[in-house]
């Protein structure tokens, strides 16, 4: 391996992407003969700031992780250094997931307290996944949501403008760059500039030119001529290096002299709505692509000010979800086997109470629009209104459904997003969507709370 | 490979972590016979919000990338699909960096307009690295800075409390989780919960227990007993699952009955300063470790309210740098060879003007404290006051210095941070530190601006 610390997570080192406490608990579960079946639920207690919904994403990667986990020599060697027991390391070396996973399909709008994933397995298996599945599903959900907000503004106020992820240089590391491209595509983007994401996920890749191309020539005109000589019609010329309107004039002259219909010009600085109109006046035949500081708020302002664009290239604001950079996913033990039966469990920690038990999430519809969700107990699912959203994807450690491909997920996400009434899709102060806790789940929660509080009094 | 899309960036796919435009420009530079020597400079135009300084980090990973880059079969196959020319793909397959790299050593406080990295090489080499080096250096610098702010509050108001990164589940993907652990260590943390980061970088790893451990037993007391039975004195018991003070009493009883000095107890919810004092009253012998919502602001408030802690475990706020989640690094062409000589270059884009030419960054000191920096032209370095911060690390494609190890970088960062006068280290409204542009660089900038503006008038 020539890059020991850059592209670090190979299949060899992947199992170590976990918190030490997971492995320490696992060892103690095993050594102490305390390995009950457990159900863990992955959800968020509240939506990120300014968000009226999230778009679920990242399930495919989470399943790859669970299903493919293998502790090889390198991982075992390091865990030996950390003084884990040889018997426990033998267990890890032969680790295999034998449990059940239920999940919300990718692309589904999701709200607070609704599980994105539920894992039921011996606790010495289910516990292990916590860090990695929160990480993958939380991040992709964050970015799919951010992307959907931009697509939603365009759906309502724009003209089908192309959205391309330009964020790889500002994503938090390389995995984020690649996964952001995938998640943005789920959320309604058309592609990415990230070549690795194209290779990994077949997301369409796009690329224009940088200021360095222009500056590397003495005259902007020479830089345009040379690029068009190389790429012909497949050229998007960056016209703001010195003066955007003059750059548009030069681009037009080069296009005419070479008898080429350019694919477009890119504007990357200044008062973008005003400049786009100025460019359109001097060079009306060309498509304008807009980058620099683009997010849902900038796109809305661009339309409000009658800017002209065929597409936008959001970067930093997309891949870091700058205005709200976290989905606070948790993976909580909600049920555990005692005396041969699954018993609901919860914690009472202040401000962090969780609803006990494996869940059902049902969504009701009126006139094709979403009309409220109910979160209940798994066993009451059939008695609750609406459609069940959680789907069993792994049983006895085996995949029991084929996951949809990325195009299908993306289309589904677009369709389902539009079913959410528009007041919940506002990019500021969205109306909260109703997520009701079922009567049975409320009763279970209150009963268990009383039991636990009484126990603490003793 | 069993996880094609989770741990994606292996040495095989690493070269594809780039924006498509880099490769398209590269191909055109090559095919068009336009391959001048170029200098690119990586810097930020302004500090992130609320920041009075940044701590440079990530150089080691950036150099691994540049030096280890190899386009193998898998990368070439995908680029063939994207219709790059065979001759260009041959060039990539035999790609080797032959240029020069100057850099700011990791752990150095750094400010706006100061290069963290300068690359001089044929433009068809130097251009290629843009996406990856901004990504790696930008992210680690972001997190090292966030970490340094927390350590700085403790240095000034605390008592040497331990800081451990608990953020892996909320980092933006896996690479961010691992690199955040490294960068936080550079910034003054004592370790991480991330096992992969321990393996990769020898960062000390720490782990306690989760609520699920406690909930998996019918009685909290049994859960504590069992854990202590397994780990003895090496136990940190999580005491807030049901009631923090009652949990502290139970922990104390278990410790006494087993005649064990616990390593500590962890508090993860509620009014943490108040609860820490309450816990200290019922169990004064034990160390309190504090997690949940920890950042520099929470630590300051914790001390202001006389909370009692031996350590803190910041998570989300650390690894996403939530209050300011981006370092807007850029990698700009600042000089290019024309007629056999290196000529300074710049763009005039509104709000994004760059200073031309390869740079010198010099730092002056008064009474051991930093007293202002000067950014000038590389060739005037010897005539400027203070100490030169940029160091040549790669010459003719070969490493010419040994990079310091992580412990050395961390110590250096702590030492240098304390040399920055305290008014620049305030966590809110810090006093801006002086970064003067040298007279020669100002003159060069103005002269070049006039030349470029005149050229646009033609």
From TrEMBL, chains A, B:
Its EC number is 6.3.4.21. The keyword Nuclease does not apply. It comes from the Archaea. Pfam families: NAPRTase, NAPRTase_C, NAPRTase_N. Keywords: Glycosyltransferase, Ligase, Phosphoprotein, Pyridine nucleotide biosynthesis, Transferase. Residues 16-137 form the Nicotinate phosphoribosyltransferase N-terminal domain. The keyword 4Fe-4S does not apply. It is an enzyme of class 6 (ligase). Pathway: Cofactor biosynthesis; NAD(+) biosynthesis; nicotinate D-ribonucleotide from nicotinate: step 1/1. GO terms for molecular function: glycosyltransferase activity; nicotinate phosphoribosyltransferase activity. It catalyses: 5-phospho-alpha-D-ribose 1-diphosphate + nicotinate + ATP + H2O = nicotinate beta-D-ribonucleotide + ADP + phosphate + diphosphate. Residues 162-357 form the Nicotinate/nicotinamide phosphoribosyltransferase domain. Residues 387-441 form the Nicotinate phosphoribosyltransferase C-terminal domain. GO terms for cellular component: cytosol. GO terms for biological process: NAD+ biosynthetic process via the salvage pathway. Belongs to the NAPRTase family. This is nicotinate phosphoribosyltransferase. It comes from Natronobacterium lacisalsi AJ5.
């Amino acid at each position: 391996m020539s890059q020991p610390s850059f592209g670090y997570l190979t299949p060899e080192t992947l199992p170590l992407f976990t918190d030490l406490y997971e492995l320490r608990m696992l060892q103690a579960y095993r050594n102490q003969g305390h390995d009950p079946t457990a159900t863990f639920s992955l959800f968020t207690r509240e939506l990120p700031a300014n968000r009226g919904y999230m778009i679920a994403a990242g399930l495919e990667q989470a399943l790859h992780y669970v299903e493919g986990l293998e502790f090889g020599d390198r991982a075992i060697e390091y865990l030996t250094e950390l003084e884990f027991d040889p018997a426990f390391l033998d267990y890890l070396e032969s680790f295999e997931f034998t449990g059940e996973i239920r999940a919300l399909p990718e692309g589904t709008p999701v709200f607070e307290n609704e599980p994105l994933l539920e894992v039921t397995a011996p606790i010495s298996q289910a516990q292990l996944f916590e860090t990695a599945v929160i990480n993958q599903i939380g991040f992709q959900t964050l970015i799919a949501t951010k992307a959907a907000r931009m697509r939603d503004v365009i759906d309502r106020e724009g003209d089908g403008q192309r959205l391309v992820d330009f964020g790889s240089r500002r994503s938090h590391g390389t995995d984020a760059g690649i996964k952001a491209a995938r998640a943005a595509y789920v959320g309604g983007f058309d592609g990415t500039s990230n070549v690795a994401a194209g290779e990994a996920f077949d997301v369409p890749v796009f690329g224009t030119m940088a200021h360095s191309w222009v500056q590397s020539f003495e005259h902007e005109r020479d830089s345009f001529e040379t690029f068009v000589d190389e790429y012909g019609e497949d050229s998007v010329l960056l016209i703001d290096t010195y003066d955007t309107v003059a750059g548009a004039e030069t681009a037009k002259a080069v296009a005419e002299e070479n008898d080429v219909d350019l694919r477009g010009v890119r504007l990357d600085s200044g008062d973008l709505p005003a400049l786009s109109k100025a460019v359109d006046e001097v060079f009306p035949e060309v498509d304008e692509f807009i980058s620099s500081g683009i997010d849902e708020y900038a796109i809305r302002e661009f339309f409000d000010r009658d800017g002209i664009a065929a597409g936008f290239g959001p970067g930093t604001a997309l891949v870091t979800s700058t205005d709200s950079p976290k989905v606070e996913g948790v993976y909580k033990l909600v049920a555990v086997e005692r005396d041969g039966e699954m018993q609901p469990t919860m914690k009472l920690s202040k401000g962090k109470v969780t609803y006990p038990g494996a869940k059902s999430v049902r969504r009701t519809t009126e006139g094709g629009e979403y009309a409220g969700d109910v979160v209940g107990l798994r066993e009451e699912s059939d008695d609750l209104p609406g459609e069940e959203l959680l789907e069993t994807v792994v049983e006895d450690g085996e995949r029991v459904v084929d996951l949809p491909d990325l195009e299908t997920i993306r289309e589904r996400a677009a369709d389902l997003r539009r079913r959410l009434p528009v007041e919940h899709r506002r990019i500021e102060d969205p109306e909260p969507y109703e997520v009701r806790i079922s009567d049975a789940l409320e009763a279970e929660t209150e009963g268990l709370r009383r039991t636990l509080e009484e126990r603490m009094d003793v």
